[in-house]
Amino acid sequence: MSLWEYANPVKFIRTTDRVLPWLAWLSAVCLAVGLIWGFFFTPDDFRQGSTVKIIYLHVPSALMAINGWLMMLVASLIWIVRRHHVSALAARAAAPVGATMTVIALATGAIWGQPMWGTYWAWDPRLTSFLILFLFYLGYMALWAAIENDDTAADLTSILCLVGSVFALLSRYAVNFWNQGLHQGASLSLDKEKNVADVFYFPLLVSIAGFVLLFIALVFLRTQTEIRARRMRALLARERMA
Amino acid sequence: MRALIARDLALAVRAGGGFGLGLAFFLIVVTLIPFGVGPETTLLTEIAPGILWIGALLACLLSLDRVFALDWEDGSLDLLATAPLPMEGIVTIKALAHWLTTGLPLVLAAPALGLLLSLPAPGYLWLFLSLLIGTPALSVIGTFGAALTVGLKRGGLLLSLLVLPLYVPTLIFGAEVARRGADGLAVETPLLMLAGLSFGTLALLPFASAAVLRVNLR
Asked: What CATH class is the domain A13-181+196-241?
């Protein structure tokens, strides 16, 4: 029994089929609890008023936008090294989900920024590097869509993902150098004594869990779709040959 | 190796090679800016380093699809791939040829165009230097993008979408050097970062480009 057994598409689909309803329901419950708790049962912040509540969407989506790219990076590496098709398809499946998370993070940030900073957009390092991350997602998806041969597309996009990761990191620190930020520091971290106050902290954790589960469920679902679409194409091709 | 670079340079310089196109494009972009933002000298002085950098970057981008496309069409890329020269070497030579035919003329022309945008006097040296150090990175990164999209029918637009985000760090440091130079501030840190970026991409990215090209030639 090893992880690599799931590189078999049949095994992958059978297992994820069994897990998927659980994941989906758990994510729905977490999101419902986290968001409703966060929106209606936490006090308004004493300076930010009720706008503080956007944190329950903003922080988890931003987290998943970055981790989505990381997951694609790992999946691409697995494809390059071990050439498991499921891995390449999982990377492909994750890209639109990650891009959506990036948009959610940018949009909620802008909506919060208008009353708080007095502007929807500022060329702040964090904002800028997120915009660049979004562009990387777009380029990655466009490259997948543009190439007809599946294996070539998988190879090229995985190399793009590796190179893109390095450049995304570089940009992250380059913009840091270029402009000092408006964005506050991390509101959550494991090694810090003091995070945001507990009233905000616990619903935030629940909604982060909801976003993580949602991301995993969507990636599983989309990977299944990709596998089935590829099978269908193979069947059609075989039929045309016969 | 020397033969390959001589061949690429000859192809670019002779008729139909599009040698001067990037340069002409650079000139046009710089000419258009005052029409867009108005001719006030103070404003132009302020934005000149950034405009010149963006102009050079776009001119560089415009000529990228020619790096491999012609060789791909007539099959000489396949011949090159079977030659004893390793693929990494071919890619590096291609990037070098692109830089010599596009980047270097841009670097030499930039101070003259700075005159049009009334760049302040201390800025010329730093603009020239930052472009001289930064444009090789643009060529190397661009060659990677060109290798990615070589097999595609209409790869041009996709090429820009892929390459432009990769250009961001180079642009930031390059424009920062030019701007600080123009304002008479210390330029050391961004200049060193820019040089590091150039050498780093030059050392590492040809491996990625070669891998990509091998996949495309499969």
From this structure: mainly alpha
Give per-residue pLDDT as tens, A143-187. Answer: 998 888 888 889 999 999 999 998 888 887 777 776 666 666 665
Put simply, the answer to whether B212 touches A136 (Cβ < 8 Å) is: no
Contacts of residue B172 in chain A, CB cutoff 8 Å?
171, 174-175, 177-178
- Reported as a single tens digit per residue, the pLDDT across A211-238 is 999 999 999 999 999 999 999 998 999 9
pTM recorded for the entire structure: 0.87
Answer yes or no: are the C-beta atoms of B98 and B64 closer than 8 Å: yes
Cβ within 8 Å of residue B179, ≥6 positions away:
B49, B50
Three-class DSSP category at A209: helix
Domain ranges of chain B: 2-8+18-217
Cβ neighbors of B118 (< 8 A, separation 6 or more) are: B41, B44, B45, B48
